[in-house]
Amino acid sequence: MKYIDKKDLMKDRRVIEEINRHLWIESEKSGYNITFEKAAREWFDNFAEVWTQHYIPNAKFSSNGKHKKGCK
Predict the structure, then answer these.
(1) Are 10 and 16 spatial neighbours (Cβ–Cβ below 8 Å)?
(2) Beta bridge mates, 59
(3) Taking a C-beta distance cutoff of 8 angstroms, is the pair 14, 55 a contact?
């Protein structure tokens, strides 16, 4: 199994599109423009793991860039 982190996911245009969609939705809900950084943080915290499972099934999302010792 391949591990993927935030840096790797940020290279995928589909992830950027998802973050921009999240940015738009949350900005509309709050009534002001939240920053891209905030939207990215929220998206990674709430959606990255499930998104990775769906779109990159042979990879596992690692939020800190590291995986458990002994896992391959």
Answers:
(1) yes
(2) 2
(3) yes
CA distance 34 to 67: 31
Taking all residues of the chain, what is their mean pLDDT, rounded to a whole number?
90
CA distance 69 to 55: 25
State the residue for tokens 């929220």. 42
Given a cut of 50, whether residue 16 has pLDDT beyond it is yes
Neighbouring residues of 5: CB distance < 8 A, sequence distance ≥ 6: 61, 62, 63, 64, 65
* Integer CA distances (angstroms), 17 to 1, 48, 49, 68, 69, in order: 25, 13, 16, 30, 33
Cβ atoms of residues 8 and 67 within 8 Å? no
Proportion of the chain above pLDDT 90, given as a percent:
82
Asked if residue 65 lies in contact with residue 4, where contact means CB atoms within 8 angstroms, the answer is: no
